[in-house]
Each structure stands twice: as structure tokens, then as C-alpha cells.
């Protein structure tokens, strides 16, 4: 097997080691396809480490002809260090997910050029001139094609890996194939669904302004019940192959293109978690916007775009998902034989709407959970962090928390996506009472 | 490995073959523990095939000292023949489930003496003088210890394999370990959740009396939506390791003992499916009882026992499940840190009740699904089949279908188990209008 791999241009199997400059160069030089794509002698390739995420090393390698991105997992959480070990196998799951997503939603994830399971390494298409969408949003950039692209990604990856599209046996195989990725799931279970709601050592918030709110959230048992129900959904509802970390930092975009990256948290989970990640992060982008103004109202058209994007996102996702259901329902759920004839078709169509309504409620709740963890938990986002004035930052965060709490506890009052954007708009200029 | 197994008293690894008399005798003689338990020379052992289930061979082997039961899977559905192949791996899953259940609910499943994966064979404790509970119920036997035993089995196997008791990583491993049992799941998906609701070739019902009802069920799209939602739950809600086929034919009982057998359909699924299997079959036992009377009212005290058993079953199950939750919540769901102090404990206790209410609704719906499939689908049960007068049989079945339809469509009107037994009692003497 190893010699076959070598013949076909792959390197010998290696033991895991962290690849650095010369070593990485030598390793890549052995990969015929990669070396060809880069062009020129390996000594001339430029290698720079650019990873700004929490977990991994990311290199950009450029040759005379072109560039690639190389992502290598570390055996620990980069943000924290060796005291927080994390299995290398996440690279295998990221690779599996990238391959699945590429097949289900062509053109919307980076193309994989090479995967080395032992080294926990993936070489992939270099995305240029794409930038991390979160950074674009902070600068006030609108992405006119984003809603179309992300709803295609969401509708296709979620629908086409669900029981609506896939026979039960194959679905169960998929669940089993990702079951080993539990260490990454556990991060989510802890950081999103547990720690923000008690006095966990690693929680952070904009103090002192949000002290009272942080305490209130830690003492609000209605909220604790709601988040616990959501946590259980996250753990035990394998509805589809989800990305698992689909915030705006996992999206690279230009005006024309959108690419979803970093699916190392992928597993079979509830669809609403991915939808909530996108929508929750857009809500934060909207409510953080006031913190990035230099003069009042200067970002009004950007903010309107974000609200429109949120509304269109659900509408378009829902339309595309249902359209797939009408045309590509090859799974074992809702068998066509039970909905024969015109009356049957009409009843199934009504049930599709009811299904989307249930998914929307999940989405609202998961959106809220994603917002709360970014303000009261360990991992914050730069939408808020880059607001320099801490009181202003706390104000934007307090608005977001107020909305998120309502979305979590009064979910049934948010029957439509319009109700969400109306509530967000109503909080845009709300002034929290920080006491003192 | 093979020689080690031989040394430790096990036989060499075999290719699969159907074991018959002399071959089986020779095979068992090689198993030291089994041979010792049987006693005497193998030539003197008696071997009889007693399987009356739909899928497998079951032998009772007796020696001078004692007896054992040997179950061997066939590579096809016994009831139908070689035209309906079925993987031998189900024996592996049955073995896994028996071992798990024995650990979680000691004394309530037969002890496994030997498992041979290649031969798809399990040798186990012979249950004497236990009989299949369904047969006892048909004769009007009451089982005074049954409710206590089955609720211990249900509460312990379901709770202790759920996210309430088991860390998420271990739960995911469990799900993956049973994911390969999809062929058995598919039987349930087809026979319970699909075929009774359309004109499937293998459906049977008591004709002509139930013709109109069978047609009505095939044209009732509200029912088709309800059963499709249930099917999706069955496929994609791995709440706990469920038995998967827990009707009264999978229970062997005496007045003092209860043993749950035949868990070859085991996988991680919704808890309500097992609960619904027991309750649905008790409802059928109750409504079939009139068909087994020789004189009006002679089985009244048996029938009262069945209704009491149904009520006590939910009450006791619920009490034991919640008690386990209070004391053995070592899972990742509903983390204790989020419900600290007296107020937190009170809120969690209220949520436990809400959880049980949701589980009860599932149970009501799955009970109904189990009833409908036994009357309009392929596999019927002897509770009804042994009623000789077909019109009387159809009458009992029509009462059951009427109740089941209400339980499926007006689930929220059945808020308590008392509502179920009251509805059943109200139908005990209802005379369906068979027209003509």
C-alpha cells in the first residue's frame, strides 16, 4: 500500500510531527500534483504561517506558478497550549467533511489537493483574494452574492445528508463515520451549551458593564432549562451532516464568491445548529455595527444589508430546501407512497411547511445560543472585540444579549424571520442601564 | 488467536453453516462450560428445535444435569424464506444488547453462555418454567410481578444508556457500535411505519370486515403525516439503547420472574418506541380478551389487571426513571452546575416532569403505531389470530384500531395514562358498524 502510494506520487506514511519550513517544503515537494501546481524549485517556494484560528497551523505556500494552503492540526488547542490536548483525528473528519461538502455543494468549499491522516494535514486550494467574511463585515462590506451562496451550501449539505434524501442504512453509516469526532463536539457542548451559564473559570465578558447581566444569566433557570434542551438536541439529533462551526469566521468571501472553510467540527447533528450559527453571527454583525461607526448613521446602508441578508437567508434557504425535497427525496423519511394523488401531494406540501416551521424554531434558539457564548463565554469574536471603547462594546453586547435571551425563551413569538429582524432593529439604539 | 480460543475451551472459528442435530451436538461438546452445564455424554443430550418466531432457529438442548437454549440466526427471514435475505450480523447485535442489558438491568435477560459470531449463534440460559407472556395473557393469566420487573428493565436500560447517564463521547461510541444493525431497523421502518398505510402486497387484515377500515387508513393523510413523523423519530433520535421489539412475545414470564429476550432489533433509538411496544401490546391483550371469553364477563378480573398494569407501568417507569435521574445523572445532558442551589434543584425537578411528559406523548404515539401494524400490516399477533370467529376477531381489532387512531391523531388529549385506559375501557364493548 505504501509503495503504491509512493508510485502514485504520494509520500511514504509518516509519524506525526509538526511540519516547519524546510520539512514542510520537502514534504510538499514529494507530492507530484502539489509540486506541479506550485511550480519552480522547492527552494524558491515561499512559506508563511498565517493561522489566526484557535486550533491549527495554517501555511500559505507559493511557487512560481501558484499557491496552496496547508492546514495542519496540532495535538492541542493552539489558543491555550499543550495543557488542553485535542485529538489529531479532527483533521481526518475535516477532510471527510470537505469531500462530502464538495460533492453536495460544488464550488462552495476549497478543493482538497492532498490529505495525510498521520500528519493531520490537508493541502488545499488557496483562496485568493478572499478574506474572512467577519473582517469584511466589520469594515462594513456588503456581500451581494453571499445569501445565494450560503443558502445553496446550507440547503444542499443539510438536505442531501438527511433522512429526506438518503436511505436509512446509508445515513446510519454516515453517523458512525463521524461518531469519533466527539472531542470536537465536546468543545461545543461545553463552550456553547454549558459554561456561559455558570461561573466557569475561563468565561470572559466586558466588565464591569456586563457584570450584572452575566450574573443574571447564571441565575436564570428558565434559560438554563432552554439551553439544556438545546444541548440535548445538539448531542442526540443526528439530522444531517452539519458543518458544526459555521460562523462568519469560517467563511471566506469576495463580492462574487463564497467559500465555507474549516469543517473540523463536522458531525451528524441538528440542522438548526448550522443555520443558527450563520444567523446568530449576522445578528452580532448588525448589533456590533454601531460600535464601528465613526459618525452616527454612516453604516446605515450596511446595516440594512445585514438585516435584509438575515431575512433573505431564511427565505432562500427554506425555498431551496423545500425544492430539493420536492425533487430529490430519495430517503426513507416521508415515503411518497403515503402521499399519493393530488390530495396526498397537497398534504405533504403542508407538512413540508410544518417541518420548516419546526426547523425555524430550532434555528432561532441555536442563533441565540451562539450569540450568548460569544459575549459571556470563553471564545469571543472580533465583531465586538474590535470595538475599542469598552462601554460602547458592552452596549452593543448588551443589546445582543437582550435579543438572544428573548429568542431563547420566547421562541414562539419569533414565528417568522421578520420578527427577528424587527426585534434586532428595535434594539439597535436601545441604551442599557449599566447602573452606577 | 484461534488456538488460544481452543485452549481456553472454545471451538475453532467456523464458517457459517446451519447447525443441525449431530453437528450442533458436536459443536456444543467442544464448549467446556456448556458441556459441563449440560452434563453426561453428548450422545445422550436431547436436542429439539422450538423456534416459533419469524426469523431464527431456536434449540433446546438438555443433558443429565441441565438444559440450555441455543439460538442461531438464518441468513433469511424464516417466516418468508430465502427470498427475503437478512444479515447474520443481527446475532452479533443481539449478543451485544444482551450483554449491555444484563449489565444495566441484572437478572432481567437470559444469561449468555457462549457467542459465536461466525455461526451467528448464541447459547444461553434455558428459561424454565417460563412461557411466552403473550400466550399467558391469551389464557387470561395475570403476572403480579410483571410491572415491577418490566419497569425496572425499561427505566434502567433506557436511562442508563441515555445522554442523562452517559458522557457524550461514550454515547456516540454506542450509537456507532449498533449503526450496522440497519437491516433490522429497516424491517421496522417498513413494516410498522410505512406498509400498513398503503396497499403493500404483504399486508393482511381480517377481511371483509376490516376492508373499509384498511382503505380508510390508507387514505387518511393526517395519519400518514403522523406516522411519517414517528418514522423520522425512529430513524433519527438515538436517545438510548432500545430493545427494538419489546412486545409481549419477547417476554418470558412466570408468576415470579420476567425475562426479556430476543433483542436482535436493538439500536440507539427513541425511548418511546420500547415503552410503546409494551403498552401497545398490553392494550391489544386487553381488547383481544373479549374474543377469548367462553361466557360474557368471565375474564373481567384479568381485564382489570391488564388495565391496572398499563396504568402502573407508566407510573412506575416514570418514578424509577426520575429516581435514576436524581441519583445517577453522570451524562452530559442537563449538567448539575446549571441547576445549583435549592431553586435550581426545584427547576430541574420541574424539567424532569416536562421531560417525562414529552416521553409520554412519544409513548402514546408509538403504542398506536404498534397496534395498527399488527392489524393491518404483515405480522399479526396471536392475541387476535387465535380468536376463531373472524367477525369477533374483526370486532376486537376494530376497537383497537379506533383507539390507536385517536392516540396517533389526538395525542394531546391523552395527557395521562389514565386517559388511555379510560378510552380503552370505553371501547371494550363498542360494536363497530361493518355495514352490509
Tell me the layout of helices and strands:
The structure is a homodimer of 436-residue chains.
Chain A: H1 2-7, H2 21-29, H3 32-38, E1 46-49, E2 56-62, E3 67-73, E4 76-77, E5 81-85, H4 90-104, E6 112-116, E7 121-125, E8 131-132, H5 133-138, H6 146-160, H7 168-178, H8 182-191, H9 211-219, H10 221-236, E9 240-242, E10 251-253, E11 258-260, E12 267-269, H11 271-288, H12 300-327, H13 341-376, H14 382-385, H15 390-409, H16 417-427
Helix pairs in contact in A: 6-12, 11-12, 11-13, 11-15, 12-13, 12-16, 13-15, 15-16
What does this protein look like?
The structure is a homodimer of 436-residue chains. By secondary structure, chain A is α+β, with helices and mostly antiparallel strands. The first copy, chain A, folds into two domains: 2-125, Phosphorylase Kinase, domain 1, CATH 3.30.200.20; 131-427, Aminoglycoside 3'-phosphotransferase, Chain: A, domain 2 (Alpha-Beta Complex), CATH 3.90.1200. Helix content of chain A is 51%, strand content 11%. Chain A has 16 helices and twelve strands. Chain A has helices spanning 2-7, 21-29, 32-38, 90-104, 133-138, 146-160, 168-178, 182-191, 211-219, 221-236, 271-288, 300-327, 341-376, 382-385, 390-409, 417-427, and strands at residues 46-49, 56-62, 67-73, 76-77, 81-85, 112-116, 121-125, 131-132, 240-242, 251-253, 258-260, 267-269. Chain A has a five-stranded antiparallel β-sheet with strand order 1-2-3-7-6, with helices on both faces. In chain A, β2 and β3 form a beta hairpin. The longest helix of chain A is centred in the C-terminal third of the chain and has 36 residues, at 341-376. Chain A is globular. Chain A binds chain B through residues 163, 168-169, 171-173, 175-176, 179-180, 182-183, 185-186, 189, 194, 197-198, 221-222, 224-225, 227-228, 231-232, 235-239, 332-335, 337-340, 343-344, 347-348, 351, and chain B through 163, 168-169, 171-173, 175-176, 179-180, 182-183, 185-186, 189, 194, 197-198, 221-222, 224-225, 227-228, 231-232, 235-239, 332-335, 337-340, 343-344, 347-348, 351.
